[in-house]
Design a protein that fits this description.
Length: 343
């Protein structure tokens, strides 16, 4: 990003961003934002020569950092802030926006002074520079918040465990916590897989994402098996009429020539060897960058909100969205090339 800052003019404050030369405005996203999206400040663009200026009018708001310094958080107010953050992120996903373009710093997330609602700044530029991620935002709230000591604050420790203890952290893992915190039991609670923390339906016997057995009565051979292997997965699907996956599938790392056979329902890829199945020695690759999932007899590639993106046959994937893989498909993690093979 060329430059981004708050600008004070008389009693008004704006947030202004200038692109660097060659950085393009995503016009579809810009026009959607301009029409008004709940939870997002609408920008005004001015294009001149090869740069673009974006101005966000932030009157009537304070930064989340300022808000936390001035406010004692009750349990209900804390739940409302988290609920707004989750809703805003889901809104971005529903409109096929890139989560990485949200400004996650508590000095750039805004709070409405009247109703305490959270507002995000989204930067529709390509290519982009990220500003942290949602986990960093949630940790910053924990670091700077002052909680109401007249209440039982054991929920704060539960919140800390949720956002820090799981490598596969997802905003969905917060939903049940927020519902319990706010006392909202009117709707059905969000059911999460205990293994990968993705959303599952009450009718699911096995997690469609990672293959985790969700109910004991459906455990294959009546044995407890917290992470179903590929052989059990094939046996389950063949007996339930869902069809079998290919007899064999593997990926080829074009940079090293190494072939990695896929023997699990979920094969994770990234540069941090402690948390992935295949370590990619490339600084442009995120710690846990992407996964290959076998589900219902087919293979899928999923980007895990990586910094530099995952590309399938030249097309960038949206984070968290499963894209089907076919034999000889080429995919790229940042700038690291792979080929998918199946027979």
């Amino acid at each position: 990003m060329g430059k981004e800052q708050f600008v004070y003019k008389k009693k008004n404050r704006t947030f202004e961003i200038t692109s660097y030369p060659g950085q393009e405005l995503n016009r579809r996203e810009y026009f959607e934002l301009s029409k008004g999206i709940a939870g997002y400040i609408a920008p005004i663009a001015t294009e001149k020569k090869n740069v673009t200026d974006l101005v966000y009018h932030t009157a009537g708001t304070v930064t989340l950092h300022e808000f936390l310094e001035q406010t004692v958080l009750s349990k209900r107010l804390f739940a409302g802030i988290l609920s707004d953050i989750i809703t805003n992120i889901e809104t971005a996903d529903s409109r096929h926006f890139n989560r990485n373009l949200i400004r996650y710093s508590i000095d750039k997330v805004l709070v409405d002074c009247i109703n305490n609602h959270i507002w995000f700044i989204y930067v529709p530029f390509q290519p982009y520079l990220s500003d942290g991620d949602v986990r960093e935002l949630l940790n910053s709230i924990l670091k700077h918040a002052c909680f109401d000591q007249s209440e039982d604050i054991s929920y704060v420790y539960e919140y800390a465990d949720i956002i820090n203890s799981d490598v596969n952290f997802s905003v969905y893992s917060l939903e049940n916590f927020v519902r319990k915190l706010s006392g909202d039991y009117t709707g059905n609670p969000v059911t999460l897989c205990k293994n990968c923390h993705s959303k599952v339906e009450d009718s699911d016997a096995i997690c469609p994402i990672c293959g985790y057995v969700l109910r004991e009565e459906t455990v294959i051979n009546n044995e407890e098996n917290p992470a179903v292997g590929m052989d059990d997965y094939i046996r389950y699907n063949s007996t339930s009429g869902r069809g079998q996956p290919p007899l064999r599938a593997w990926i080829e790392d074009e940079s090293t020539g190494v072939s990695i056979e896929i023997k699990k329902c979920v094969l994770s890829l990234g540069k941090l060897s402690e948390v992935v199945d295949y370590c990619v020695c490339n600084t442009a690759v995120s710690r846990k960058h992407a996964e290959i999932i076998c589900e219902n007899g087919f293979y899928y590639l999923v980007d895990l909100n990586s910094l530099n993106g995952t590309f399938l046959n030249g097309r960038r994937l949206r984070s968290g969205v499963k894209e089907p893989l076919s034999n000889n498909d080429k995919f790229v993690l940042a700038n690291h090339n792979f080929i998918f093979h199946s027979i």
